[in-house]
Design goal:
CATH class of the domain at 32-122: Mainly Beta
Number of strands: 7
CATH topology of the domain at 32-122: Immunoglobulin-like
Number of helices: 1
Largest sheet: 4 strands, antiparallel
Distance between the termini: 47 Å
Structural class: mainly beta
Order of helices and strands: HEEEEEEE
Strand order of the largest sheet: 1-2-7-6
Helix content: under 10%
Length: 137
């Protein structure tokens, strides 16, 4: 079976990176921890909320890498000198990735009541239709 690519369509120019982003998103979509919500807060803004109970602000790093929002969490091991009879609260590290479309910018991040909120905004181009003039050669 032949794999169909966007490059096989001659009328779709410059979509090679979109194909790579879709492949990356498909590979990253199988993660289950931590749970998250994505909500649309207005026509041009979104909010990602991750449940990160037990993590401090210093335990979490948020970066944008090649049009991908990456959130990493790693808790410090503070169990030294403590004896647990049962340890059911997850203290593991995580990495969550979200592919960002062109024009989507990451705004502020706020930690509140064990939830990490990250706001995103989509910038709208000023001009949707642009006339191209023809120069005499």
């Amino acid at each position: 079976m032949t794999k169909l690519t966007l490059g096989a369509y001659p009328h779709m120019l410059g979509f090679e990176q979109l194909e790579r982003l879709l492949e990356r998103a498909a590979k990253a979509g199988n993660e289950g921890y931590p749970p998250f919500n994505i909500e649309q807060t207005s026509d041009q803004s979104y909010r990602i909320t991750l449940a990160v109970a037990g993590f401090r602000e210093d335990d979490i790093a948020i970066t944008v890498e090649d049009r991908q929002l990456v959130i990493r969490g790693r808790q410090r091991d503070d169990s030294e000198g403590r004896v647990f009879l049962h340890r059911g609260i997850a203290a593991r590290q995580f990495q969550r990735s979200f592919v960002l479309a062109d024009g989507v910018e990451v705004g502020e991040a706020v930690m509140e009541n064990g939830l990490l909120h990250i706001d995103l905004t989509r910038s709208v181009p000023d001009q949707i239709v642009r006339k191209i003039s023809i120069r005499k050669g």
